[in-house]
Each structure stands twice: as structure tokens, then as C-alpha cells.
Amino acid sequence: MLINVMNKAHFDICVGPWTFRPYEEIIINVGPMDFDFKLIRGNPNLRVGKLNNAQYIKKHKLYLGNKFNFAYDDNDVNIGFAYKYAIEALADPIIKYLPKGETAYYSRPVPGKGGKGLNCRFFSSLRINQQGKTPVGPRDVFISHGIGDKNYWIGPHIQDYKYAFCPGPAWENRMKKTGYKGEIFQVGYTKLDPLFNGEYVKNSTDKLVVAWLPTHGYNNKHRGRSSFPMFSRFVNQISKDYQFVDGMHPTTKLHNKEKNYPTMQLLIDADVVIADAGSTVYEAWALGKPVIFPDWICKDDVLGHFKTDKNNLEYIIYDKVIGYHANNMKELNKMIEIAASDGMQQQEIELMESIFPNKLRGKSGETAAKALNELY
Q1: Are residues 224 and 342 in the same domain?
Q2: pTM of structure
Q3: Do 265 and 200 touch, CB atoms closer than 8 A?
Q4: Any bridge partners for residue 2, and if so which?
Q5: Which residue of 171, 238, 255, 290 has the lowest C-beta tally within 10 Å?
Q6: DSSP letter at 358?
Q7: Beta bridge partners of 142
Q8: Which domain holds residue 225?
Q9: InterPro entries annotated for this entry (predicted)?
Q10: What are the DSSP calls for 309-365, one per residue?
Q11: Rounded distance, CA 150 to CA 320, Å?
Q12: Do residues 278 and 222 share a domain?
């Protein structure tokens, strides 16, 4: 029998003698009981026997794309999408060093010119599959949307990716030890390039600036992995001698209907950062900012959540007491002055060097762009 088939994925799909190109509709002659036909019917990326493929392509914005494509992995990036600015903060420093006219943002991954385009994607393949997003293709590159160790980067969670970018040797070792078999490129952490390169200037103030920069809240058993919202009860106990500011996680801002911009200026302005178990810990340390951890809120839950993976970086930080750790609000207040005066300790400096080496700070976008050019 004759039947039309359209590939809605951004990569070639081969079944038997047929190769289905992205977004192309072809008519094939196949028996209804043939094994190949069962494979075709069972592939969720192939539209079989549909008559409205042109409308489908238009409705779902199936563009052909460029050489270097950056995927939001969300169809409505301007409505209810928490990570738009976070993704752009990571991608823009890379785009700066790629050929003009050969890059673009898309709501979903695209084939690119001649089907050879690269797609930079910012979420694990596990999350993509769980949420029913466009599956990872052979020309997709994993770049995590954050630098924190929430087990997004471990082997089983990114195994569908052939290529992965990471900030430094600690992350490469962790990815390999957890079973990732793809090709890894150490490129640094592109989001901080503008800060290292002087594009943000610290605001002048007579007071020490204390910034609370928590990760997103959790609803599960170990909700104390985030200091939000519990630490908000203690904010009024911070000494008035300090200027207190806060910067919420993108998902928290979305829930609160706040403007959703990255915490760049707050990181530059801060003299001391209060954080928990997310990207802002490492972002602050990379910039030389001491971090205080509210252990009475976070420690038990961080250690409890990661107890089966004691190589997790957040587990190590709390278990080995790396950084400034306060057992109560009184201790935290005292630590602010000490941390501002003494700065980062040797343990934090050494850990951060292995996570995000100094040689890549301010040069991550350029390094990542070179890697993408090599892959293309």
C-alpha cells in the first residue's frame, strides 16, 4: 500500500530502506503487516498517514535553522517560561564569537543547513524525555542551564547526548565516573563572562552588601536543599549595619510574577553571599565572593538527599564544611563580618579551581565557540 510519512524530528530517521529527512513528507510503498511498517507506526517522531502536515509544520514552528542553533525547549518562551533569560545569559557569550548570520534561538531544536546544524540544549535528556520534549538528536550539544550539582549532569541523565560542555575537570571527572560515554569539552561557564570582562560595575555603597541568592524551592521530602522560603523568616534579623538584597531563582520569580532577569548585578554588588545548594554558590566563589550556608535549614536535607551519591559536589560542601557554615542566625550574623574581612578560604579556592578553572574565566564564550566550530 502507498502511505505518506513525515518526520517531525530535527534529525534523520532510518527504517529499512527508507531515510526520513526532517520535516519532509514522502510516500512509501509498504505492506500493512511488514515489520518495517510496524517500526514506522511505532516511532513517535513519524507522522504516518496524516493529511495536514503543512499545517502541522506551521503550527509547531518547524524551522530549518542555521549552523549553530540554541534551543529553549519550550514553545511559549515569552509566556510562563522561567529559563529564557538564563539560557540567553549562557548562550549570548558564545554567539559573540560565532559567525554572524549563522546563529539563532529557537523554541525547539532544528535541523540546520543541510541537516548538519548543531543544537545547543540546556536541559538533561532525562528531563527532556520526561516532559515529552523533542528528543535529543545526534547533532545536539548539552550545556547545563546551571553550574550547580543537582545530578542533572550525571551519566544516566545525559546519556542521549553525543557531546557535552562542562566548566572544568571536576565536572568532566564526575560525568565520566557516572557513566557518560560521549565527548566532553571543558569550556568554563559562559554566563559569567560579562562579569569577568567588566561589563558590570559594582554599585557604590557605604555598607557591606549581603545578598541572599537561593535556589528554587522544593516540595519533596528534602525541601531544605533550598533556603527558600524558610530563610525569609530570618531576614529581619540581619543587622541593619548591612545592606541586604535578595535574588530569587527564575522559577520563583515566575511564580511571584516578578521580572525574570539573571542575578548578575547582585553578584557584582555583593560582598557576602548567603546561598544553599545551587548555581549561585559556585558563581559567587568564581567571582571571589565568600558564601555563608544556613546549615540549620539546609544541611540535613542536602546530606539526606544525596546520601547515595557522596561524590555530589553539594554533598561534599556540607559534609566537609567547605565555606562558612552557620548553625543559627546568631552565628550567621557574626560570620558576615568575618567573611567580608577574611574572604574565601583555601578550601573554597581549590574546589572552585577544579570546578571552573581560572584560565577559563572571562574566556568561556570564546572557548565554547571554538568547540562548536570544531564539531561543525
Answers
A1: yes
A2: 0.92
A3: yes
A4: 29
A5: 255
A6: G
A7: 121, 164
A8: 195-355
A9: TagF_C
A10: -TT-HHHHHHHTT-SEEESSHHHHHHHHHHHHHH-S-HHHHHHHHHHS-GGGTTTHH
A11: 18
A12: yes
